[in-house]
Amino acid sequence: MTTEFVPFTAIMDFAEPSTKTGTLILQKDNPSGLAEYDDELRIPVIFTTFNQNVGEKTSIKVFFGNSSRGAECEDVVFITREIQKVATIGEASLKELLKGPTALEKSQGFSTEINAGVTINSLTISNGTARVDFSSDLNKSVAGSCRVQAIRAQIEETLKQFPTVQSVIISVNGKTENILEP
Length: 182
What we know:
Shape: elongated
Distance between the termini: 54 Å
Helix content: 10-25%
Strand content: 25-35%
């Protein structure tokens, strides 16, 4: 224990701010639970980017299979969805994809081959290539070349709707080897 400042590093994940300013609150560890030992430091923060379009909606495409159209494994059809306007539109589109089709969409023949519970670890887009890293659930119990083609097509087409994306690299927990193989 010390009363001096100690160096530390932290990475904070938070939703895109809807305001230009915020406050970082550092609270003193107080294992005693006694109120007289509580202390905190409040640091004002100015966000360099924030969502000025709170409340605005935008349309995106989410690609699913549709058995009623007699399509091949890798043939996907888009559904248009209205979502909150955000700077990270590619990630927001993938999150919509991972939700799967709604009950109404399912009744219209739309389906997904992506496992439930899959999350996005990261998404970067640079020089026309989107690199998307998913949780291990993406690759869990995936068998059959048709299913693999369908999963890849759903992810790739959902990202390729944006003019900044010409190709997609899919990884699971940072690994691209043996990913989505039948």
